[in-house]
Amino acid sequence: MISFRYHIVTIVAVFLALAIGLLGGAAFVQPALQEQLQDQTDRLRNDLEDRTQQIGDLRDQLGALNGFADSVMPYLTSGTLSGTPVVLVTQAGVEDEVLTQTQAALASADARILTTVSATDQLVSEDPTTQEQLATIVGEPTAQAEELPRLAAEALAQGLSPSTTVIGGEVLGDLLSAGFLAPIGSGPSQATLGEIGAPGQVVVVLSGGRGEEPTLPPEAFAVPLVERLAGLGVPVAAGESLLTDYPYVSIVRADGIDGTVTIDDLDQSMGGAALVLGLEDLLTSGTGGAYGVKDGAEPLPPAP
């Protein structure tokens, strides 16, 4: 009869053998595994260094292209929009470089910027009193809260169109007074508000941006503003930065809106040139275009 002590000794021997096997195997496996992991780390480090070098090279190339564009831009764009009235609409979250490049490009073309305004988060306020105020301004007192930004965009577009009986300055003035739009700079004078919506006016709408998606996304206000303006026959351009984190121009392009200029690198000098030349072509031929470096875009419209 096998004793209990024999069972204990046998079990201990089995576990001891397993432990010795694991230790012995690890002596051979661990160095091979360590070498494999080291090789993978070295490959990833080399790949990272290569990508970093490529990024640096691309930045240098982009800087050179922008330097060239800065040099030739006066020859390409000077006087191309001479005296053309422009209303510039942007929104919170749009990079400073986009607005600065847009204003500089329009100035170099001798365009006359009537006013620059920015759509605010008040358009998507959850406060019932604010919502009621906006609904009154857009003439839709029973509208649902989620519809109000689009309705505000459409009402503003109506006011910016010479083909309607709506006085643009009144709509713009009401939205500014209530804080749904904020002036950039000193804001429009009463005389300027009286000019809003006159024939021959161009509207430039900026959106997109970096970081988290804003409270007021492009599809809530900027996109319907562009769509409605184009539908009313108002010359309109839509612009965003090269590295925007959320789509705007791509949505406008996907909608296939005729008579619209889109620029997907408006924070760059070449984007500014594309804006001016694209608007000139739109005003003379009625044909819009997609310009920039992203899918389906041309770098620049044909020079006059």
Descriptive notes:
The protein has 304 residues and is an alpha/beta fold. The chain has 9 helices and 7 strands. The chain has helices spanning 4-77, 96-108, 128-137, 148-159, 168-177, 190-195, 222-231, 249-254, 269-285; strands spanning 85-91, 112-119, 181-183, 202-206, 236-239, 260-263, 289-291. The protein has a 7-stranded mixed beta sheet, sandwiched between helices. α4 (148-159) packs across α5 and α4 (148-159) packs parallel to α7 (222-231). The termini are far apart.
- The computed structural class is alpha/beta
* Coarse shape: extended
Give me the number of helical elements.
Answer: 9
Number of strands: 7
Query: Ends: how far apart?
Result: 108 Å
Largest beta sheet, briefly? 7 strands, mixed
Give average pLDDT, whole number: 83
Name the poorly predicted regions: none
What is the percentage of strand-forming residues? 5-15%
The helix fraction, in percent, is 40-55%
Radius of gyration: 30 Å
Order of helices and strands: HEHEHHHEHEHEHEHE
Spatial ordering of strands, largest sheet: 3-2-1-4-5-6-7
List keywords for this structure.
single chain, 304 residues, alpha/beta, seven-stranded mixed sheet, 9 helices, 11% strand
Topology, pairings included?
Blueprint: H1 4-77, E1 85-91, H2 96-108, E2 112-119, H3 128-137, H4 148-159, H5 168-177, E3 181-183, H6 190-195, E4 202-206, H7 222-231, E5 236-239, H8 249-254, E6 260-263, H9 269-285, E7 289-291
Parallel strand pairs: 1-2, 1-4, 4-5, 5-6, 6-7
Antiparallel strand pairs: 2-3
Helix pairs in contact: 1-9, 2-9, 4-5, 4-7
